[in-house]
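Tokens in:
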């Protein structure tokens, strides 16, 4: 199932109400039926339908366990499981459409099952509550969604490595305070983003590690009076184990918050990267030329080519922060155990994951198809005294204390500013006047490419170091892709 559900307002899509009146799972205790307005307000089926196959899989595991434990007869357990498989096929083929007149996806599936199997269908919910059922569905949703997001992150890391491999010697100014600082390479710059994305990948793995426990069998909140085997269903569904406390299992949504938090941080990285792309695509920088397929024009200014996709990703980052805030706020005042407030979690969870998914996809295409203007990038390393630190390092290597060397280099910069020239243009005699330690070889050392090569510390910008980073990133990529296949 896709994850791009951006449903924000269940009320707006109010169902044609009638089904619930007779189909509410809890109707027995009531004489009156919910009003149309009330159902339209409380229904969640437009949102939780996204987990329909998770819900069916969970029910199949549950009835198998009920059969294995002799809680319901084997034959009936099998009949229910078989019918659930058929329902899944029918939904996939379009033979069965989800009736949005139901309160939620759980009610709809149970209704169809009972319609088809009669009293046998009524046994599916034995020893189960929608409270553990929804928590289960969410964890199953998270498993496949996190894995899909991680694949997108890997694809982007791979794309960045491919570009970087061609640009380990392509000079570009590094900036601090958005002022030219020191020459780096485009590869070093891209690797910086790749490492951040690798950590995003790890955060999703961590979130998944904690989410991958089964809440099923916790029932409403206290567990069940029937001899359920929670480990059986956990194993059947591929969980690492069970949530150890039945109340915790149905009352927390920390797994949603963790996932959206990882998504928010990943969006932060994309957003900052987009900010650079927007700057770099301007005529002032001119470092990058975005492909026409990933640019837009203006309805009035015929010359325009705008980086709208980068701007949209930057903008959508705010939406994901909003979803994270919504989840935190929703949870902060809730006593144990289940509270209906928690129904709203899915809107934020699905939207945040969907937003990150599409942003990663679009960003990857945008960066893969962009052209890099290596001349403009290299030119940014000249004219801003980006080699001043290297002048100081040169003097340090000749034995001068760093603070004194910093002062000599600063004196040279001052002189150059007065004359409107660059450090590489200052005559040797003038350098000698600043420090007799300076010799003719200084001019080679001031070349941007020499400044780059000199940064040969581990993790530094020197091509040799960046090649090592790339090897390490590639190794991570290959191993992670392999692990996903297993
Ligand atoms: N739609 C509900 C949710 O998403 C399902 C659980 C309903 N439980 C209940 N006790 N009303 O949270």
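Residues out:
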């Amino acid at each position: 199932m896709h994850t791009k559900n951006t449903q924000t307002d269940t009320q707006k899509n109010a169902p044609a109400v009638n089904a619930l009146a007779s189909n509410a799972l809890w109707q027995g205790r009531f004489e009156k039926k919910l009003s149309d307005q009330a159902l339209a307000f409380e229904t969640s089926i437009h949102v939780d339908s996204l987990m329909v196959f998770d819900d069916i899989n969970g029910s199949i595991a549950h009835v198998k366990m009920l059969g294995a434990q002799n809680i319901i007869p084997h034959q009936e357990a099998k009949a229910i499981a078989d019918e659930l498989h058929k329902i899944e096929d029918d939904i996939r083929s379009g033979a069965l459409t989800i009736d949005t007149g139901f309160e939620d996806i759980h009610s709809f599936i149970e209704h169809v099952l009972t319609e088809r199997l009669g009293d046998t269908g009524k046994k599916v919910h034995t020893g189960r509550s929608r409270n553990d059922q929804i928590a289960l569905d969410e964890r199953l949703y998270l498993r496949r969604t996190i894995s899909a997001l991680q694949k997108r992150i890997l694809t982007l890391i791979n794309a960045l490595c491919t570009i970087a491999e061609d640009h380990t010697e392509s000079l570009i100014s590094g900036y601090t305070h958005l002022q030219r600082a020191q020459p780096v390479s485009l590869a070093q710059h891209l690797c910086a983003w790749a490492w951040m994305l690798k950590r995003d990948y790890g955060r999703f793995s961590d979130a998944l590690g904690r989410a991958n426990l089964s809440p099923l069998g916790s029932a409403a909140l206290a567990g069940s009076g029937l001899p359920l085997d929670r480990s059986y269903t956990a194993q059947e569904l591929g969980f690492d184990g069970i949530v150890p406390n039945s109340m915790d299992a149905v009352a927390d949504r920390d797994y949603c918050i963790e996932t959206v938090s990882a998504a928010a941080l990943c969006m932060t990285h994309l957003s900052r990267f987009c900010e650079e792309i927007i700057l770099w695509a301007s005529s002032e920088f001119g470092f990058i030329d975005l492909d026409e397929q990933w640019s837009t024009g203006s309805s009035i200014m015929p010359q325009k080519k705008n980086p709208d996709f980068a701007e949209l990703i930057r903008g959508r980052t705010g939406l994901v922060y909003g979803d994270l805030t919504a989840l935190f706020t929703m949870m902060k005042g809730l006593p144990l155990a289940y509270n209906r407030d928690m129904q709203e979690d899915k809107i934020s969870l699905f939207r945040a994951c969907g937003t990150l998914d599409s942003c990663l996809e679009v960003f990857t295409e945008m960066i893969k198809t962009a052209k890099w203007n290596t001349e403009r990038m290299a030119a940014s390393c000249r004219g801003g005294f980006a080699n001043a630190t290297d002048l100081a390092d040169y003097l340090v290597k000749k034995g001068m204390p760093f603070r004194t060397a910093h002062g000599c280099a600063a004196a040279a910069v001052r002189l150059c500013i007065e004359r409107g020239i660059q450090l590489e243009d200052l005559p040797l005699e003038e350098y000698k006047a600043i420090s007799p330690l300076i010799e003719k070889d200084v001019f080679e050392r001031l070349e941007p490419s020499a400044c780059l090569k000199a940064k040969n510390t581990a993790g530094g910008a020197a091509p040799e170091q960046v090649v090592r980073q790339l090897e390490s990133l590639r190794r991570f990529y290959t191993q992670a892709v392999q692990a996903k296949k297993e």
